[in-house]
Structure formats: structure tokens, C-alpha cells
Amino acid sequence: MASPAMTRTGPEIRCTDLAKNFGKGATLLEAVAPLSLSFAAGQMTALVGPSGCGKSTVLRMIAGLEQPSAGQILLGGQTPQDMQRQGALAMAFQDASLLPWRSVRGNVALARKLARLPGDTAAVEDIIARVGLSGFEDARPAELSGGMRQRVAIARCLITQPRVLLLDEPFGAVDELTRARLNLELPPLWQASGTTALMVTHSVREAVALADRVLVFSSRPARVVGDIAIPAEARSDTALQGALVEQVNAALAQGWSDHAAHAQPWAAQ
Amino acid sequence: MTPALRLPFVPEPVFRQMAAMLVTLALWQLAAMGLAGRYMLAGPVEVVQHILQNYGLLSRALWVTFQNAAWGFVAGNLAAIGLALIVALVPQTRMLVAALALVVFCLPLVATGPILRVLYGPGPGPQITLAALAVYYTTFIPLLVGLRAAPASWFDLIRLYGRGAWTVFVQVRVMASLPYLLAGLQIAAPAAFLGAMVGEFTGADRGIGVLALRAMRGLDVEATWAIALIAAAVSMLAYGAIGRITRTKADTQPEMLMAVKPEPSAQLVSARVFRIVMLVALTAALVIALWWALMEIFALNRFFAKRPDDVWRYLVTAPTAQANRAVLWAATSASLEYLIPGYLAGLALGVAGALALTLAPALGSGVLPVAIALRSVPIVTTAPLIVLALGRGAAGTITIVAVMTFFPALVACLQGLRQTPGQVLDVMRLYATNPVTRLWYAQIPAMLPAFFAAARLSVPAAILAITVAEWLATGRGLGALMALTASTSDYNLLWSAIVVVTLGACIGYGLVSMVERAVLVRVAPEQLRN
Ligand SMILES: Nc1ncnc2c1ncn2[C@@H]1O[C@H](COP(=O)(O)OP(=O)(O)OP(=O)(O)O)[C@@H](O)[C@H]1O
Ligand SMILES: [Mg+2]
Questions:
Q1: DSSP code per residue over B303-339
Q2: Is residue B274 part of a domain?
Q3: What is the pTM of this model?
Q4: d(CA B354, CA B444)
Q5: Which of A155, A150, A7, A169 is nearest to A88 (CA)?
Q6: Which of B377, B470, B519, B508 has its CA nearest to residue B109?
Q7: d(CA A111, CA B163)
Q8: For labelling, which of A187, A212, A245, B367 has a CA lying 20 to 30 Å from the CA of B433?
């Protein structure tokens, strides 16, 4: 892919006192309590935390799909809506959400069209090959496995060379081996262009292997209970990786026990 | 079926269908011969003879009716698509457009036919208009569902790139609604034929409906049977042909046909009641305004094109108002006397049939396709036949209404039962749940929305059936009253009857919706949410 890398580098993301409530009155649910986060430009951050703690909601607010109840989000000084209009955002949803009437190729190509970019057949073929789906270009989503669909969704994200990449459990339905391979092959696609990336994952190992930083949340209402930088050496040093995984796990456990002190975690769901 | 019975090289389903057909034909012939003279039944031999002898006449008439139906089909469906487009692009208008569409759909074809005849003069105008009126609602409603039938994340995807409602419409809604549109078109094909035939009943000079009327009036048994069977065959063919296109063009089947998801009910009950009252008032005001405006814009002669104030005067302020109301009320209650039992019997038999077929699947292998095929037969066009067979009294009329509601109910229930999520059934299987429990906890709740959708749509259909039967055969009730007033030019009474029938159909539709809500809240609240 010929990438105008320098012009598409990612912005810094700043969330200030970000909060989100769903419903009102008796059914009010505090999905995200005031939370301030910032993510460095060009870095990849993994978000881990218990199910239902609000990770997807944070991601959706940064994508401009959900309006915050309070607080502010700025991406390099711009609002999410500004970024949307520039075609600078991409997001892989928890379910792949492909359009069933479009082929693999058609789904990937659609993103360029939506982002108002000129069509680029070669780039589409190339990205499909990189997610390991050569030969399935003309298949419909219904003919693919769950993991294959998620790979199409990732290809759809990458085809627009986004400045901000949001991945919500992108490898949830992919087997361990394929997942390990994708973990090796995909990051270069966005790291080279300096994309700012956020990834929600339930695999601590994956978080450590892929990200530059791991942010650990407690149960809802989420607080940051761990903020662990992953040094570049960890990529090749398995012992260091193991230690970091331990560190993240400890923070997760901390978030649980804190929570248990004043509420039954399952009752809170 | 024992293996010994099977012919070599003949695939079993084909063999079974052929055998069933031969047996049916033989029984039919025997019945016709046995009952000759007592019941008005013509056997297949006589029917074929009649068709061969009158081949030229029948095929010319069929071609005329087919053309009228085709034009009506196109016009009605274009209208449905236009209405759905308005709703898709201006979602606030949804309730109002749907209510107006319902009112127009509830207009009694038996009365609009003669009035359109006066308006258009001779020619195919009324037939085409009635065909269009008969189809547009059954396309509009599924389309309305289809335009909203997409998971939220597809819309998120479009918004992610900062694109607006138009892109959502082009990229998601149009494609997502396609299977629903095609399903609607499939039902519309036989309905168009029905509309065209009813139009021809109202005094056309050519077409299969004219022949049907003539045959029935002349007590020509062979001709009546031949024409009813031709109408049935053409309807089934049209239904099948559109179905074939549907299967090649859309690989996704619509989820739950014709079941509009009710609005979420987060509001207070009083707020909901207020909203409904507002909607009814607004719809009534708009209908009256439109009625008036159309009459004035086209400068229609006040003698036959009555305005709302004419009806008001006739029914309320005129010195004879009380007598006028009494005439209408007598006819209405005469119609209701047969309409309600027929409607309820049709629905009950439809549900019972679907449940029986689910509990004893062996009984019903292949019943669904047959039921779908029979649903496509415009029952009203076979009304002369039923009247011939069962007489002009209560039995004949109630049967016509019941048959009209039976097939849609049966098909909707069978399709609804098949909507039960596979995982739920798997869980039940895991615990070796007995079929009745499975039916009660999983399948019936899944079936109810489709059933109620059919029950709602059956209200205007049942009214159409009874008015046609009364008009063509029994000579009592609102159908006969409307036919009589049309021929004696008593337009005040005719327009009043139209108002009464339309209002009655809308009230019936609303009552069914209320029952639906009450039942779903109790039995399947999950079907009410989202
Ligand atoms: N559209 C919505 N309406 C109402 N409540 C919502 C909505 N979306 C999320 N929630 C609630 O907000 C909370 C956080 O949900 P969210 O999807 O952000 O969790 P999550 O951390 O992504 O969980 P998981 O790891 O299971 O995906 C949950 O309690 C959920 O019930
Ligand atoms: Mg989530």
C-alpha cells in the first residue's frame, strides 16, 4: 500500500470528565462515571476490564457514535464529529456487522466510498490478502466463519488508513493460532503510519503483545486501576512479557476486590 | 407409504404429489356424479369440457383481466413504495401515513367500484384502480418493517464516516428492505387479480369477472366452476412466479413477515392514550380534508360525489335522519351477524390447523406450500362457487368469510412457528421437553406476532368477503345495500354506507391491535420490546 504516512499520523486523544448515563428516572444506569483519560499520538493502547464495565461505551463515545452525558472528547483538538467528516476514524465492532448483501470485497471497498476516498482495487485485494482471506473475495458474509468475518471487519477498518483506529474485541472469535499470526502481521499496518489505536480485549496476553500501554479498568463504574507501559523490548523478551502479564492480572484482581468491598459485583450487572 | 408402492425412478415427493392430485380429481368427479342435481357441483370432466368449448372467449377475457391486474399491480406497488419513501426520509410522519393508508385500504371496494364507474365512464379505469387499492397496503406494511429491519451497528458504520441519512438510506435501508418488498409483491400479485375481478363485477363489459357474474346469474354450474378454477390457477401462478424471482434476487429471508414491531412503551399509559387519541383525531381531520379537497379540485358533480357535509346532513341534521340511520343500522347488524362468526371461525381454524401440524409433523409434510398456494387464491372470486354449493343462507356467507381469514391465519401461524429461535429449541431438546410444553413456552410466543398481523389484515379482507357475498348472492346486509343504492342512484345512502364500513373496518383493526397488546404483554412481553 502506498501510504501518505506523514499526512495521516494519528492525533492525541483527550477525554475530560467523560460520563455516560443510559435511561432516566428509575431505570437510570451509570455506564461510565466521570473519567479522564488521555492517549498519546501514534500509540496503541489496550483497554482491559471486567465485562460490562463500560469499555465499549468509551470507545463508542470516542468514535462519536454515542453522545457523552458530560465531559469532553478532543482528538488532536478536534471533536469526534470533525474526525468523522474527514473519514479519519475506523472502528471494528464487537460483532463484525458486515452488510450481508455485499461480498468480502464489496464490504471492504464500501469503507473507502463512505470515507470519500477514490476506489483502489489493488489496495482492497492487498488488504484482503493480509488478513488471510485470499480466495474469499467474492464470498458473502453468510458463507464465512465468525473469525473470518472479524478479519473482514479489520480489513474494512484498515483500507481507509484511518488516523484513529478503534478495535472492540476484534479477535474475539478467532482461534489462538490465527490470533497469534494476526497479532504479528496486522500491527505493522497501522504502526507504520503512526495511527493512534485503542483496542478492547479480554486476552491479557494479547494486550501485552500488541499494545504500547495497557489500561486496566475496575468493574462499573469504571476507574483506572492499572496503567502499565509496555516497553519495546517486551516484543522479543518473553520473560518480560510474562512479568507484564502478571502485573496486568494483579491490577484486574485489585479492581475486583476493591469493588467487592462495597457492592456485589454480579448484582451490579 | 410402503416402499412396495413406490414406482421406480420417480422421485418420491413428485410421486406423492401426483398421486394426491389424481385421488383428489377422482373424488371430485365421483362427488359431482353422486351429488348431481342436488348440489351445484361440476366434475373435472365437465369443467375441462367447458374450458375447451369456450377456449376463445375465456382466453380473451383472461387477457383483459390480466392486463388490468398488471397495471393495478404496478400502480399500487409504486404508491406503496412512494409512501414508504416518505416515511423513511421523514420518520416523524410514520404513524400518520400508516393511519391514512389504513383508512384508504378499508374503503369497501363494493361501493368504491360503482362510484369509480360513474367517474371514469366505460373502460378499464375502475378495475385498475381497484386492483391498485387491493395491493398497495400489503406491500406498504412489510416495506415499512423492512426499512427499519437492520441492526444498529450497520447504521453506526455509516455514521462513523460522518455520512448522513441519505447514505444510510442508499447503503443500508434499501437493501435491507428488499426481501420485505419482494415478499409484499408476492402477496400483491393474486390480490391485484382479485381487485381487477371485483372491479369487473361492478359493471365492466369485458373480462373474467364479467363472465363469472354472468355464469352465476345464469346458474351455469360448469362455467362458474371453470372460471373460479381459472382465477385460482392464475393467482397461484402469479404468486409462484414472483416467489421465484424473490428467491433469486434476495438470499436473505425477511424475519417476521408483516409483523410491525410495536413502539417501545417507556411512556406512561396516559401519555400513550393521549398520543393515540391525537393520532385518531388528526387522521380523521386529514381524511375529511382530503375527501373534500379531492372532490373540489376535480370539481366532481355533487349529485354522485357527496361531500362530508352531505353525509353529515343525511345522517344527523336532515328531518329523515333517524330513518336513514335505522336503514343503515339494520344492514350493518345483518352483516355483523355473519361477519363476526366467520372471522373468528377462520382465525380459530387457522391457529388450530397450524398447531396440529406442528404437533403431528407427519400429517403436514408439505402442507405449508399447499396452504400458501391456496392463500393466494382470491377467495372472493370463488364466492359464487361457495354460494352455489352451500346456498344463500348463513352457511354459505359464514363459510366465505371464514375461508377468507383461514388461509392467511394458517400461513402466518405456520411461518411464525418456524420463527422460534433454533437455540431455544435446542435447549428444550436437551431436556427432552415434550412437544406441548415446547409449544407453550417457545413456539406459541414466537407465533403470536405473525398471527396478530394476519388477524389485523384479515379485518378488511373479511369485510370485503362479506360485502361481495351479500352483493352477488345473498341480497342482505351492507353489501346488498351498497349495490342497491348504487343502481338506484341513492348516493347519499351509498356514501353513508362507505363511511360506516370504513369506520367499522378501522375500529375492528384497532380492536385487534388492542387485543394483541393485551395478550403480548401477558404471554410474550419480549415481543413488545425493541
Ligand atoms: N445502548 C445502551 N442502553 C442501555 N444500557 C447500555 C447501552 N449500552 C451499554 N449499556 C450498559 O452500559 C454498561 C457498559 O456496557 P459496555 O458495552 O460499555 O460494557 P463492556 O465493558 O464493553 O462489556 P463487554 O466486555 O462485556 O463487552 C452495561 O451495564 C450495559 O448494560
Ligand atoms: Mg463491549
A1: TTS--HHHHHIIIIISTTHHHHHHHHHHHHHHHHHHH
A2: no
A3: 0.74
A4: 10
A5: A7
A6: B470
A7: 11
A8: B367
Chain A residues within 8 Å of chain B (Cβ atoms): 60, 63-65, 81, 83-87, 89-91, 93, 95, 97, 99-101, 110-111, 114-116, 140, 142, 160
Residues B250 and B326 in one domain: no
Over 60: is that where the pLDDT of A6 sits? no
Residues B128 and B75 in one domain: yes
Last residue of a domain, one of B228, B257, B286: B257
Closest-CA distance, A97 to chain B, in angstroms, reads 6
Q: Are residues B407 and B472 in the same domain?
A: yes
Q: Which amino acid is at A159?
A: I
Q: Is residue B235 part of a domain?
A: yes
Select from B472, B485, B474 the least CA-distant residue to B212.
Answer: B472
Closest residue CA from atom 8 of ligand 1? A57
Closest to B259 in 3D by CA, of B455, B118, B43, B421: B455
Strand order in the sheet with A29-39: A29-39, A13-22, A70-75
A44's enclosing H/E stretch is strand A44-48
Q: Do residue A115 and residue B172 have CB atoms under 8 angstroms apart?
A: no
Nearest to B217 by CA among B396, B484, B475: B475
**Percent of chain B surpassing pLDDT 90:** 16
Query: Would you state the CATH architecture of domain A7-82+193-269?
Result: 3-Layer(aba) Sandwich (3.40)
B1 domain-assigned: no
Bridge partners (DSSP) listed for residue A226? A216
pLDDT at site A146: 80
Residues B253 and B343 in one domain: no
**B113 in the same domain as B47:** yes
Q: What is the pLDDT of residues B97-156, one digit of tens each?
A: 988 898 988 888 888 888 888 888 888 888 999 999 989 888 898 888 788 777 778 888
Q: Which residue has the cell 388528526?
A: B282
Q: Which residue has the higher pLDDT, A118 or B202?
A: A118
- CA angle at residue B15 from B49 to B244, to 5 degrees? 80
Which residues contact residue B88 at a Cβ distance below 8 angstroms, ignoring those fewer than 6 apart?
B147, B169, B173
Whether B317 and B452 map to the same domain: the answer is yes
Instruction: Provide ipTM, 2 decimals.
Output: 0.72
Q: Where are the beta strands (DSSP E) in A64-217?
A: 70-75, 89-92, 164-168, 196-200, 213-217
Number of domains chain B contains: 2
- CA quadruple B262, B268, B269, B271: dihedral sign: negative
Chosen from B153, B158, B160 to mutate, greatest number of chain A CBs within 10 A: B160
Here the CATH number for the domain that contains residue B385 is 1.10.3720.10
Same domain, B401 and B506: yes
Which residue did the predictor score with more confidence, B10 or B374? B374
Could you report the per-residue pLDDT of B43-100, keeping only the tens digit for each? 778 888 888 888 888 899 999 999 999 999 999 999 999 999 888 888 888 888 988 8
Q: Which domain holds residue B233?
A: 39-257
Per DSSP bridges, beta strands A164-168 and A224-229 are: unpaired
- Asked whether residue B461 is domain-assigned, the answer is yes
- What's the rounded Cα separation, in Å, for the pair B527 and B530? 8
Q: Which three cell numbers stand for residue A22?
A: 443510559
- Residue that terminates a domain, selected from B234, B257, B280: B257
How many whole angstroms separate alpha carbon B183 and alpha carbon B420? 20
Residue spans per domain, chain A: 7-82+193-269, 89-161
- B86 class by beta-carbon count within 10 Å (0-12 exposed, 13-18 middle, 19+ buried): middle
Q: Which residues of A fall within a CB distance of 8 Å from B160?
A: 63-65, 84, 89-91, 114
Contact A114 B251 (CB under 8 A): no
For chain A, the C-alpha Rg in angstroms (whole number) is 19
Q: How far apart are the first and last CA of chain B?
A: 47
